């Protein structure tokens, strides 16, 4: 049975494929009948204002992506996550929890809270979001958090600069109660399926295997090759109806990544053009912010998909990685992400599917699995190179991406360049 914020049983929320971490899919959204009273109660509590990215984490916690976590981490949970990448349950079992999910406050807010056991959470635009109960406030050692999460304190880490550096010197943990499901009203909410909704959809489609693919870039034909090949492999293993969860990350991303709305439009074209089969593919948005923390973060990405009901997870080269912010090299070893996933404590029940590297075969004029025996025939087109093609109005080699998807990218970069030119003209004048 699932458990609501109040501890009462609700309807069964599980697919037959894989149990949520801790055995229960967390749901921290207050039942509609109780919302009015909770809102009145929150009115007399000290207030903590959330940033846009804090709100994304509220979304993540409230829907159970981080199950069994029921709120922002208290100090014991934070220390287990930061130092061991796990959380230990009361029965002694462990679940993977590689990223600290925390809420920072400054000295002034800490003083205003005083000895209050509960606080109200206010959204970036001033509306009441929810309540944090039985709170605990503890020191936010930023340097330790950064060093242990990223393995470096080099300047230029996007999440650090956007979220951690400007944050307060205290962390506040507690049990979360969210008054209403989090919505963004950006035209994409229909794609934001909760773990509960995804599990029900997998059951509706009678999936006997669900394989998740995490991405933050447009889908090119190399990605499609990997996803279609994975389905072929699962059919060969004896599964009758493997379903793909194409699961783009929808929270914070760095400035030069393609925005979510453009990526979602591009993904739609990939399905329309038949590169992926709509009958065996579910496209949904994963609401988590992106850390770019390599092997540490890829464990979070895999763990969250367990809670969504996926029992297979595709992992490739340098998952959740990025270039070093100050040196011309990868920040992480490109092979370490998939190796760490295959050994990570708490992820044993998830089947990890490493895939071979795909590149553009200049002889066959299509994306293909890299063949080292004729390495000279292959062209590697990175995300950066793909964005450069689109920005310059150049076409990639035929067969790199479906035409409809490529048109979406070119249109986006043309619009972006026009906006940049307008801004430059305003500054010049």
Automatic annotation (TrEMBL):
Enzyme Commission (EC) number: 2.7.7.4
Gene Ontology annotations of biological process type = sulfate assimilation
In terms of superkingdom, the source organism counts as: Eukaryota
Q: Where is the ATP-sulfurylase PUA-like domain?
A: 20-180
Give the EC class as a word. Answer: transferase
Which pathway is it part of? Sulfur metabolism; hydrogen sulfide biosynthesis; sulfite from sulfate: step 1/3
Q: Which GO terms describe its cellular component?
A: chloroplast
InterPro entries attached here?
ATP-Sase_PUA-like_dom, PUA-like_sf, Rossmann-like_a/b/a_fold, Sulfurylase_cat_dom, Sulphate_adenylyltransferase
Which terms does the record give in the GO molecular function aspect? adenylylsulfate kinase activity; ATP binding; sulfate adenylyltransferase (ATP) activity
Q: Where in the cell is it found?
A: Plastid, Chloroplast
Matching Pfam families: ATP-sulfurylase (PF01747), PUA_2 (PF14306)
Where does this chain mainly localize?
plastid
Q: Where is the Sulphate adenylyltransferase catalytic domain?
A: 190-412
Return the similarity comment.
Belongs to the sulfate adenylyltransferase family.
PANTHER family to which the protein is assigned, alphabetical: ATP SULFURYLASE 2, BIFUNCTIONAL 3'-PHOSPHOADENOSINE 5'-PHOSPHOSULFATE SYNTHASE
Under what name is this protein listed? sulfate adenylyltransferase
Q: Which organism is it from?
A: Liquidambar formosana (Formosan gum)
